[in-house]
Each structure stands twice: as structure tokens, then as C-alpha cells.
Design a protein that fits this description.
Low-confidence stretches: 32-45
CATH superfamily of the largest domain: cca-adding enzyme, domain 2
Strand order of the largest sheet: 1-10-9-2-3-6-5-4
Number of strands: 12
InterPro entries: NT_sf, PolA_pol_head_dom, PolA_pol_I, PolyA_pol_arg_C_dom, PolyA_RNA-bd, tRNA_ntf/polyA_polymerase_I
Structural class: alpha+beta
Oligomer: single chain
Helix content: 40-55%
Number of helices: 21
GO biological process, one term: polyadenylation-dependent RNA catabolic process
CATH architecture of the largest domain: Orthogonal Bundle
CATH topology of the largest domain: cca-adding enzyme, domain 2
Protein name: Poly(A) polymerase I
Catalytic activity: RNA(n) + ATP = RNA(n)-3'-adenine ribonucleotide + diphosphate
Distance between the termini: 170 Å
Organism: Bisgaardia hudsonensis
Length: 486
């Protein structure tokens, strides 16, 4: 019996040791898994209470935010990431304006965002890696928190040229570091819809109330990193009716030339944002004040005068007033029209030179001058071909508008770009007066007339301006040579 009991106790001990081994191995696995989860789990950034305010006290609630943006934030937060509504949309809501776009910032990296949203997500950009979350035609842009590129550990992900401009900036960091990387204090606001709080690291709320536009960090360094910030400053000043802080204002005059380092296609896009958003006239005046218009349109500078009263300058003002009015009336804007108006008088001057010095006819002079002027324009701003083609059409139709006899007016009226060409003619009448006024009035009446009235308009025009009669010359018959007498 003793032997049996000893055997049983030995078996029990061996079983218990095996079980203990199993438990220890399982516990080890669990610990390893926990370590892996902790490594991959997004780190929570510290957020000091002194920077956090109740959003509802400043007029922001989840009701102000687009439902798609809220969906993106909620989905990221459910996966354990930080996510906030950021930037211009908050600024506009605080100013009582309707935001056009809603952006999100998170500590999830682009690849992690793509893993969460899968087919709904598209990664874009090389200079700044971003995630676009698609909701049909709507896009919510999601950016990962960025850190200071100056850190030597971040040299692989950030790159600058000799002028200090950032060529690549994919250094990821915390929300505090991300706030430091933003351009203006009014754009460095973060909204968390989950607890309805607003994070303001740089007193952007106070700057909004006082109408002050202020760069974050050293202004010279920030302009050197991205010279387009100078144009953004102008745009915000005009759009939001704000003033630029003295420290942020001073370097612009000295650093305006850095815009020449920006890709021309990007400058073209920026010029549209500046001049076709409904406050083009104020923007133009600010660009002239800070010597930035010279960098965008160097080909126009020879046509400017000290008194700002040249035909070119008057045309620019007239075109911008018209564009601002169209934006206010919610009418369609054609980018090509504005630039066709800007360069009309430089074109005319070039045409006169080619006709007088080159001996070209009117049509050929316009064709050659158009190419030369557009080349100068595109050297500074790389306008797409679809726009330059329309600019040519508008210019050539100015010649067709001179033809008021026969079938010419009816054909001109059918041209797809007739309306834009007529608007340019009306502006010419306002700027230069003279024959353009009569021509503009005739075409205005012709458009509103029926067939009979149009015929009478043409007859009246022929009576007032009869065609000169063609001169016919009698051709002398050649006399046959007399036969030579042998």
C-alpha cells in the first residue's frame, strides 16, 4: 500500500510540474503578446490642461463638423489612435464662415490609416505623405502628426535645398510637435469631438479675436522652408480681413525672390486661389504692396507706371472687380479669361511691333504675338494647355468681333468662347474708350435682337461704314510682235 501511495504521489507531482510548465509557457506567450501590443499600440501624447478649452464656449460643437470627418475621427479613435479635426475648417467656423473642407490629423501613420480604411483610402503625395478617405465625391484629408525636421535622426525622412526650402517632410511626431510645424497660429487648433474640447497651443483663439495673423516660430526660417507661406499670408489677410504681425511681415520684402524656387505649376494653382476666390482686388493690392506680384507676373511689370494708370493696370483692376462680382453672384469662373484680360495690352503692343517692324499682316501678327506673350506668362506660371488654348481663342475673337458684315456676326456668335470674348471687349470699352465703346454697344444689341433686327443692324452698319469700292484695272492685250522682214 505504501508503495502504491508513493507511486501515486510521484505521478501527481509530475503532473503538477507539467501543468506548471504549461502555465508558465502560456503566461510567457501572453507577456510576449502584451509587449508586442504595447510596441505597436499608438503612444499617447501629453496634452497640458492649460492648452485645452471647452469648444462649445467658442461656438464649436459636433453639429458644425461634416459627418464624414466625424466618421474618420471616430474610426481612428476606436482603433486606439489620436485623431482631431484641424486647421482652416475650425478657423472658419470660429469666424462664422462656412468651411469648404474638413481635415483630420492623427498619430496613425499613412500605412496604418490605409489598413483601417482599406479601399476607401488612397495615399497621395511625395513631399508630404497624406491619406485621402473617399466618401463618394467627398474627400477627407488625413495627415499624420509631423515632427521637427531639423533633428539629425530625421534626416532620412526630411530634405531641404540650399535655400532652406523643404523638399520632403515625412518626419512623424506628436501633436505638440505637429502644432509647431503648422504655419499660422490661427491654423494650429485641434478639435476633439469625443469630449468637445479644443486644443490651442499658440494662443490662436486670441489672435482670431484680435484679427492678428502670426507665424509660428522664426518667420525667416518658416518662409525659407516654404516660400508659398508668403502668398498664404496675403490670402488670409484679404480673405479674413486680418493684419500681419510686424515680425511676420518684415522678412517678406527680402525673401520675395524665393518664390522663384517654387515649381511653376504650384505657383499657377496658388495664383488661382489668390485671384479667383472673391477677394481678388484686395489680394492684388496686397501683392503689389509686398512686391510679390512682381514674382508671379514679371512679364507685366514693364507695362506698369508710377501712377498706376496704364491701360494694363486699369484692365487688371477692371477684370478683378468683375471676377469678384461673379464669385459673389455664384456664377462660373473661367481662369483663362482673367489671364487673357491681364495680358491683352502687352499682346496689342507686341502685335503693333510685328506689324510695323516685321511687316506682318494683322492675323499673322496676332498669331506670333500670342505665342510670344504666352511663353512669357508660362515661364513664371505653368498654365495648363487647356487654359492657354482658351486664352488664344478669346484673343483671336477680338479680331472676329470687328467683322460685322455678311454671315460673320452669326458665326462669331456661335463660337463657344464668344461670351468671354464679348466680356473682354466690354472691359476694353471701359478702359480705353474710343471705337471699342461703339463696337461693344453694337454687339450687345446684336445678341438681344431677333433675325430681322439683326439684318437691319448690319444694313445700318454698312450704310455708316460702306466698303470701299474695288478698283478694276484694264488689262492691256499684248500685241503680237510683227514678223521680222528678212
Amino acid at each position: 500500500m505504501k508503495k502504491k501511495s508513493q507511486l501515486i504521489s510521484k505521478k501527481q507531482r509530475s503532473n503538477s510540474t507539467e501543468q506548471n510548465k504549461k502555465h508558465s509557457s502560456e503566461n510567457k506567450k501572453e507577456r510576449d503578446e502584451e509587449i508586442l501590443i504595447k510596441k505597436n499600440k499608438p503612444t499617447k501624447s501629453r496634452c497640458y490642461n492649460k492648452y485645452v478649452v471647452k469648444a462649445s464656449n467658442n461656438g464649436i460643437t459636433p453639429k458644425n463638423i461634416h459627418k464624414n470627418a466625424l466618421t474618420v475621427v471616430e474610426k481612428l479613435q476606436r482603433q486606439g489612435y489620436q485623431a482631431y479635426i484641424v486647421g482652416g475648417c475650425l478657423r472658419d467656423i470660429l469666424l462664422g464662415k462656412q468651411p469648404k473642407d474638413f481635415d483630420v490629423a492623427t498619430n496613425a501613420k499613412p500605412e496604418q490609416i490605409q489598413a483601417i480604411f482599406q479601399r476607401q483610402c488612397r495615399l497621395v503625395g511625395r513631399r508630404f505623405r497624406l491619406a485621402h478617405i473617399m466618401f463618394g465625391r467627398d474627400i477627407i484629408e488625413v495627415a499624420t502628426f509631423r515632427a521637427n525636421h531639423a533633428n539629425p535622426h530625421n534626416s532620412e525622412q526630411a530634405k531641404q535645398n540650399d535655400a532652406g526650402m523643404l523638399l520632403r517632410d515625412n518626419v512623424y511626431g506628436t501633436i505638440e510637435e505637429d502644432a509647431q510645424r503648422r504655419d499660422f497660429t490661427i491654423n494650429a487648433l485641434y478639435y476633439n469631438p469625443k469630449d468637445n474640447t479644443l486644443i490651442d497651443y499658440f494662443n490662436g483663439l486670441q489672435d482670431l479675436k484680435s484679427g492678428k495673423l502670426r507665424l509660428i516660430g522664426d518667420p525667416v526660417t518658416r518662409y525659407q522652408e516654404d516660400p508659398v507661406r508668403m502668398l498664404r499670408a496675403i490670402r488670409f489677410m484679404a480673405k479674413l480681413d486680418m493684419f500681419l504681425e510686424r515680425e511676420s511681415e518684415k522678412p517678406i520684402y527680402e525673401l520675395a525672390h524665393l518664390l522663384s524656387n517654387i515649381p511653376k505649376a504650384r505657383l499657377f494653382d496658388e495664383s488661382l486661389k489668390l485671384l479667383q476666390a472673391g477677394y481678388g482686388l484686395q489680394t492684388y493690392q496686397l501683392l503689389r504692396k509686398y512686391k510679390l506680384f512682381d514674382q508671379l507676373f514679371p512679364a507685366l511689370m514693364p507695362y506698369f507706371t508710377e501712377n498706376e494708370d496704364s491701360f494694363t493696370e486699369k484692365m487688371i483692376l477692371t477684370a478683378l472687380k468683375s471676377t469678384d462680382q461673379r464669385v459673389s453672384d455664384k456664377l462660373r469662373i473661367n481662369p483663362a479669361f482673367l489671364f487673357a484680360a491681364f495680358f491683352w495690352y502687352p499682346l496689342r503692343e507686341e502685335v503693333d511691333v510685328l506689324k510695323n517692324e516685321g511687316g506682318l499682316n494683322n492675323h499673322d501678327a496676332y498669331a506670333l504675338a500670342s505665342s510670344e506673350v504666352l511663353d512669357l506668362f508660362c515661364k513664371a506660371l505653368a498654365a495648363p494647355r487647356r487654359h492657354t488654348a482658351v486664352i488664344r481663342d478669346i484673343w483671336f475673337l477680338q479680331l472676329q468681333l470687328l467683322k460685322r458684315a455678311g454671315n460673320a456676326p452669326a458665326k462669331t456668335l456661335e463660337h463657344p468662347k464668344f461670351r468671354a470674348a464679348f466680356d473682354l471687349l466690354a472691359m476694353r470699352a471701359e478702359v480705353e474708350g474710343g471705337e471699342s465703346i461703339e463696337l461693344s454697344a453694337w454687339w450687345h444689341e446684336y445678341q438681344l435682337s431677333n433675325t430681322e433686327q439683326r439684318e437691319s443692324l448690319q444694313k445700318e452698319q454698312q450704310r455708316l461704314n460702306p466698303k470701299p469700292k474695288k478698283k478694276y484695272y484694264r488689262t492691256r492685250k499684248r500685241r503680237k510682235p510683227k514678223p521680222q522682214q528678212v
